[in-house]
């Protein structure tokens, strides 16, 4: 029988294709594994705030003065290195909590020093 008419089993080329596919899959898996093992960037490495203490104080003061729950009260605001200090007397704990929440949500505030107290009854 001439060589062209000899039927070759299909498995002759299949192992080579299977090996090549397996190598590609392994290389891709190794690449993904190497990428996923990189250490996450620490929070401290994030860009520091570019908002000045004066700007933070002004922003907090503006929020407190413009808010219906806090505008009627004399709350002093001061900022040092992103730490905002609030001092004053309010009628309810809800008002104190609200003033603190407004302050914490302000850009540039790193922490809040709570000097707010309840009005004596």
Explained architecture:
By secondary structure, this protein is α+β, with helices and mostly antiparallel strands. The chain folds into two domains: 9-36; 53-118, Histidine-containing Protein, Chain: A (2-Layer Sandwich), CATH 3.30.1340.30. 40% of the residues lie in helices and 17% in strands. It contains three helices and three strands, in the order H-H-E-E-H-E. The chain has helices at residues 14-36, 53-66, 93-104, and strands spanning 76-80, 83-90, 111-118. The protein has a three-stranded mixed β-sheet, with helices on one face. Strand 2, helix 3 and strand 3 (111-118) form a beta-alpha-beta unit. The chain is extended, with a radius of gyration of 33 Å. Residues 36-47 have low confidence and may be disordered.
């Amino acid at each position: 029988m001439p060589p062209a008419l000899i039927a070759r089993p299909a498995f002759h080329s299949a192992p080579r294709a299977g090996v090549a596919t397996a190598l590609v899959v392994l290389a891709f898996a190794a690449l993904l594994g190497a990428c996923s093992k990189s250490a996450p960037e620490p929070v401290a490495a994030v860009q520091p705030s570019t908002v000045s203490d004066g700007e933070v104080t002004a922003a907090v003061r503006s929020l407190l003065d413009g808010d219906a729950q806090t505008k009627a009260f004399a709350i002093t605001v001061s900022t040092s290195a992103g730490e905002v200090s609030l001092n004053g007397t309010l009628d309810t704990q809800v008002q104190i909590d609200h003033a603190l929440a407004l302050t914490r949500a302000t850009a540039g505030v790193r922490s809040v020093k709570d000097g707010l107290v309840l009005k004596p009854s």
